[in-house]
Amino acid sequence: MQTQLSFDVVEAKFVKSSKALDQCPAANKPEYAFIGRSNVGKSSLINMLANNKNLAKTSQTPGKTQLINHFIADDKWFIVDLPGYGFAKVSKSDREAWEQMIYEYLSQRENLLCIFVLVDSRLEPQKIDLEFMLWLGESQLPFSIVFTKTDKLSASQLKTNVENYKKVLLEYFEEFPRFFITSSEKKVGNTEILSFIKELNQNFK
Ligand code: GTP
Ligand code: MG
């Protein structure tokens, strides 16, 4: 059998936005969720992967994505755009509602094969990201790290930041998770993430 190394998404479509897990589409296809701080570049990354600039709404205004947004790629796998965390202007009750929705979805969605945690490659590890990853680890939920906006750094700065990130994370985790270097602006990391998704799709039962 011939194995294809990478693949492109031919057609991605919006499916629905849900307020809670029980409103999500039937869990009958492999699913990947994208999460991270507000404005980190989730929607832009999804659009790069889906090969469609207009699929997920991107914005300059943090906190744009509020619901669990399902998209389907080539009728085979779900892409999920989740609302960002750490948006300063959010009230306590909104934050609690967010936590309830996200934690329920992440811990109970049966077809969720990997959670991509996006972090801004320009920043030092942020407490809120570390706490979130620790929660994922404790909950035994599979996740990968996606460094975003790498076009805004020189190659050497990027290397330094990634090394530093590893160092900090290894104080909490035994192994550094799988990670991806990306730029939605320059289309970097697309092939790597899609190959990984393809690999996981093959094991979906
Ligand atoms: P929320 O849904 O509000 O949480 O934001 P988000 O994480 O979906 O971020 P979004 O994709 O909307 O991007 C936020 C801003 O960052 C936009 O102005 C994007 O154009 C910009 N951006 C996203 N990815 C990249 C990238 O790879 N490089 C550069 N230079 N800018 C990017
Ligand atoms: Mg968004």
Structure in words:
It contains 5 helices and 7 strands. The chain has helices at 42-50, 92-108, 127-138, 155-169, 190-202; strands at residues 12-18, 31-36, 68-73, 77-81, 112-120, 143-148, 179-181. Strands 1-3-4-2-5-6-7 form a 7-stranded mixed sheet, with helices on both faces. β3 and β4 form a beta hairpin. The radius of gyration is 16 Å and the shape is globular. It starts with 11 loop residues before the first strand and ends with a helix. The model has no long low-confidence stretch (mean pLDDT 91). The structure holds guanosine-5'-triphosphate and magnesium ion (MG). Residues 38-44, 58-60, 62-65, 84, 148-149, 151-152, 183-185 line the site of guanosine-5'-triphosphate (GTP). Residues 38-44, 58-60, 62-65, 84, 148-149, 151-152, 183-185 line the site of guanosine-5'-triphosphate.
